[in-house]
Each structure stands twice: as structure tokens, then as C-alpha cells.
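WARN retry 2 of 3 for item q-0093 after timeout on previous attempt; input resubmitted unchanged.
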Amino acid sequence: MMRDIYYRHKRKIDRILFFILITILVYAFFTVLFAFLSPFFFGLLIALLMEPLIRVMVKRMNFRRWVASLLCLLIFLAAVSSLGVWLVSTLATQVASFVESAPTHVEDISARLEEANLWLARLEEHLPEGRSMPDIQEMMLTAVTSLFGEGVGAQGIRAFTGVADFFINTILALVSAYFFMADREKIFNFIKNATPRWFANQMNQTKAGLTRAMGGYFRAQGILMVLVGIISIVGLLILRSPYALFLGLLFAVLDFLPILGPAIVLIPWALISFVMGNIHQAIGLLVIYGVITITRQVLQPKILGDQMGAHPLASLMSIFIGFRIFGLLGFIIGPSLLMIFIAIREANQKEGASWQ
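OK item q-0093 returned
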């Protein structure tokens, strides 16, 4: 009986099982496997990014594929290195400027804390007997002590380990990117042959739709990053920040990372500005963050839907449900599953089978 039902609705059941399996694999990748495979994942992204240029070199300029791959990798390194040098030099200038003015900032903060303690002391006079107000300076000292409670040595070891891991992962990503570019057909054929036939057939049937949806997803994220960068730069120029361009580009990059985002810089900056008495700047920074957040939340479903070929409501639901189920990773997993669903649905429509 069950076998008859399966063969009668084989395509639909296979697609449903395929979607469930892909959901499990996507979740396992981002929660468990990503920590082990991240260099190779970024290497694959680099290879996919440079593939159009490699094809031009191979087909129109008659380069061997390994030569074209090496040249494209060098071009990518040159572009990233140039951007990195500019960012580091700009950051070094900012750090030097901050260090030069650090004594003034420390004096301002100390004066503001003294004023706050005096205000709390006057307020304490009106409290019932036995009640007291906290000492702000003592609270900040406790916070700093807990932050560095492990000691400078432990912090230094962790920082050194992080830098070492970063360089190792970068080298692995670049090496794997070259192999993904140079031996693209061999690697993908090996993966295809090692994959169970049922799963490989389902992937082949959804490949075109999935590729289009993925391209739309990254285009949508690029559009949102540009919008965030423009909002940030304009807002910082209004606040007369001398580093508006650099910080605007930084916020645009951070906005792509759902776990971080511009809040990791804007919120502490606003709090420091408030403590130092620069109320105008603090409010301005919070306004910039508010505009960025509202713009992204309002436009993201529409832009994602247009670029991926889904209704904006479906995009909004994928983000919300993904967040509810997977937490912060749901901002990535939710749209990823929506892309897969769209690809499966398109494959069904091409074969004349509809899920409706």
C-alpha cells in the first residue's frame, strides 16, 4: 500500500524528502561543520567569483586553465591587498590620532564620572535611610577587572592564537581557491560520482533554479550593503566625522554579518559620546543606527524577493521563521532554505508537476 502511494507520487515525495535532507545538511553545516570547513568554503566562493574571468581567459585568450586560474588568483590577491593596505593605513592614522588625544579623552571621561557621582550623591540624600546609590567609577573598575580577569598574558595568548588561526585559514582558503579554479571539472565530477545517485539526480534537476536563486541572494545582499554604506557615509558627514568614508564602508561590510552588524561599533561609540558629554553626536549615531535598521528591515524582504524570484512576504517569513528556529544563524539559514524551495518548485513546474 505504502509502496503504491510512493510510486504514484514519486516525484513529489522525492522532492519533499530532498528538501528535508537539505534542511538538515544546511543546519549541520552552519552549526557544526563550518568551523572545520570555513577556509575551503571561502576558497570555493573565491573560485566562483573568479570563474567568469577564467572562462574569458580560456576561451578568448587561449590560456591554459591552470595559468588563467593562477593569474586570476593573483588579480584577486592584488585587489584585496590594495584594499587592505588602504584600510590599514587609514586605521593606523585614526589610531594615532586617538592615542594623541587620549589624555584629553581620559580627563573628560573622569570629569563626567565625577559629575555623575556628585549627582547621585545629591539624589542619595533623598533616599530612605539604609539605601545608597552605586559608585559609577567603582562599577566601571569592576567591569574592566572582570573583562581582563584572566590576565594580560592570557589575553595576549588568545590574541596571538587568533592571529595565527586567521593566517592559516587565509592560506588554506587561497590554496583551495586555486585548486577549485584549476581543477574545477575534476573536483565537481569526483563529488558528483561520490554522491548517492538519488541525491545527485535531485541536485541536477534543481541546479539551474538554485544557481539563479543564489545569485539573486548575493545581489540582494550587495544592494543592501550599498544602501547601508550610503546611509552611513551621509550620516557621518552630517556629524562632520573626518572618517566618514572609511567608517561607512566598514559599516557596509559589517551589515553583511548578521551576528555583528554596525551596532557593534555604533552603540559603544554613542555611549562613549554620551559619557563624554557630546550629546549631539550620541543622538546622531543612534539615529544613523536606527535608519540603517529600519531601512534594512523594510527593504530586505522586497529586495530579496525581487532578486530571488519570491514574494516579499515569503522572504520576510523565511527570515523570521529562520530566526525563531535557528537564532541568529536563521538570518542565513532561512533565506538559504527559501532558495532551495524555489529551485525545487521551479523544477516541479518544468516537469508539469505543481505543489499547489
